[in-house]
Amino acid sequence: MKNNILKLFIVFVLGLVSMFALLSFTNENVKEPAFTKIGNDTAHAFVKIPKITKFYTKGELDKMQKLELIDIYKSRLAYLIETLPFLSLHPEPGATFKDMSIPETEINIAHLDKEAKNREDFIRSLNETLDDVIPYSEKTNIVWSILYFEEMIKKANYTEK
After folding, report:
1. Contact 104, 44 (CB under 8 A)
2. Cα dist. 11→41, 69, 83, 129 in Å?
3. How far does CA 85 lie from the centroid of its chain?
4. Other beta carbons within 10 Å of 66
């Protein structure tokens, strides 16, 4: 029963992420630039989070305390929220419009800027909620979720090679 509830929660969160990605692509202007420093150039980048370099085994996770697991859970979820909307583009972290042959138009830049701000707000809000509700989860469900998130990350090929 608890596994089914956790699976439903994960599906719900992924649905929210998808809806969030769709809603963030409008023509409204954003004040904060969504650029990152790449080499000597300043360019608009899609995925601004570093690649995951450490994946955990079930044994490693089972040995950890619940609070440490919650931090890993939240970091993996934030990573997925950052990468999933752009999965079809398959950009490397730091990839720019130019790197992916996307025209760097005013509208495209505005879309990316708005998406970056909305994503930051969403992750901040989600973390506040998770801080309140995830401690009530069974430790085994948190471990299972982390392993599931990490499998998704590996399959998306957003990992250190």
Report:
1. yes
2. 39, 20, 16, 16
3. 9
4. 14
* Angle separating helix axes 66-83 and 106-133, nearest 10 degrees: 160
Instruction: Decide: helix, strand or coil at residue 11.
Output: helix
Q: What is the DSSP letter of 96?
A: B
pLDDT, tens only, 51-68 = 888 999 999 999 999 999
Question: Contact 143/58 with Cβ under 8 angstroms?
Answer: yes
pTM strictly above 0.70: no
Who contacts 113 (Cβ-Cβ below 8 Å, separation ≥6)? 29, 30, 32, 33, 34, 44
Rounded to whole angstroms, the Cα distance separating 15 from 1 reads 21
- Structure-token match 């490693």, residue found: 60
Terminal alpha carbon distance of the chain: 38
> With the C-alpha atoms ordered 69, 150, 53, 22, is the resulting torsion angle positive or negative?
negative
Are 154 and 47 contacting, i.e. CB atoms less than 8 angstroms apart?
no
